[in-house]
Amino acid sequence: MRPPFYNPLPDGDFVDNPPPIDPIDPIITTDDDDGDGEPPSDEPGDPPPDDDPPPDEDPAQNSKLTEDERRRAQRCHDGEWDQDPILYWSLDYTVYQEAGRPVGVASGAEACFVGGHPSKGPRTRVTPPGWVTGLVRSHLIARSLGGDGRRYDNMVPFCPGDNRRMWDLYESIVKTRTEMKETVYYRVEPKYEPGNPVPISIHIVIAGEEMGEWDSYDLPNSWRDGECKLTIPH
Fold this sequence. Notes:
Layout: E1 5-6, H1 11-16, E2 27-28, H2 67-77, E3 86-89, H3 94-98, E4 109-113, E5 126-127, E6 136-139, E7 155-158, H4 160-179, E8 184-191, E9 201-208, E10 215-220, E11 223-224, E12 227-228
Antiparallel strand pairs: 1-3, 2-5, 3-4, 4-8, 6-7, 8-9, 9-10, 11-12
């Protein structure tokens, strides 16, 4: 099932009149501590697969993606993406609410990058529900990929070290591939525990036309007991 989208929203109206947030009201800020473009971390990425698939094998059939993820990625690669390059999912995606997901938090975003990516997005201007000192305001679609920091549906609280890993392991790869004019389907979904507006992890899909295998990844948020357990490398 594909979720409904805010696509597009008038950014000024969205910031000035955000949807009701429960249990924490959003805070308007001019800070930009989201960490986009931060130096790479020392954390290694996932090891490459042992064997590359045969050249004539369809990567969509050789992937670890769900049926919906494969279908959306295939639409992007088949030139059937008839929407804006970046789609932000509804804050009140009811499928997650039924599972106890907190109301008014970002539920996900996806993008189909063809021939490059949008220009650098606006700086962060909103504070997502659940943010406290020690966390950063993290983009689902990175600012460097055109993600908008003025939208509540694109921002989540995340640990600084984990946010750097997001850039180092995933966002920088997507940026490099799109700058090489490769068509890339990119999808980001924060995962929540019931009643907690701070994501416990982010689920990531990267499906490039030159990639031998389309794959998905899960990046944990190390926020536990009021602090981040993953330190920032210096």
